[in-house]
Specification:
It is built from four helices and no strands. It is an all-alpha fold. The chain has one domain. Helix 1 runs antiparallel to helix 2.
Length: 111
């Protein structure tokens, strides 16, 4: 590979992870100034969903893995909204299991 191709590859890899960094910083800064009201919880969930979607888009390089990642994210969001609306412990546990699966998926594809 030439130096120019290597520079392009490094820039491309940094570029897609910079979106993830910006979404994480937005989550941290945005939730730092909110209280504990119901609207604040919804705001946090929206920002956290943006971080999850950005993470999947950043790490997935093939359409198959992107589809799997997006499916996990949308299932997590559905479980999160359902447990928020219905206050069910079983939905919360299922949501937490999906979070663990998602984190394992992301860790596997980052390395």
């Amino acid at each position: 590979m030439t130096n120019q191709a290597i520079d392009r590859e490094v820039h491309y890899r940094f570029g897609k992870f910079s979106y993830l960094l910006c979404s994480i910083l937005t989550l941290l800064i945005g939730t730092a100034f909110t209280g504990s009201s119901r609207v604040s919880v919804i705001f946090f969930c929206l920002l956290f969903s943006a971080v999850l979607l950005t993470a999947v888009i950043s790490i997935c390089q093939r359409h198959k893995t992107l589809g799997i990642g997006l499916t996990i994210v949308f299932l997590m969001l559905a479980m999160n909204v359902s447990s928020f609306l219905f206050h069910s412990d079983s939905l919360t546990i299922l949501h937490n299991i999906l979070v663990i699966i998602f984190l394992a998926f992301v860790f596997y594809h980052v390395t």
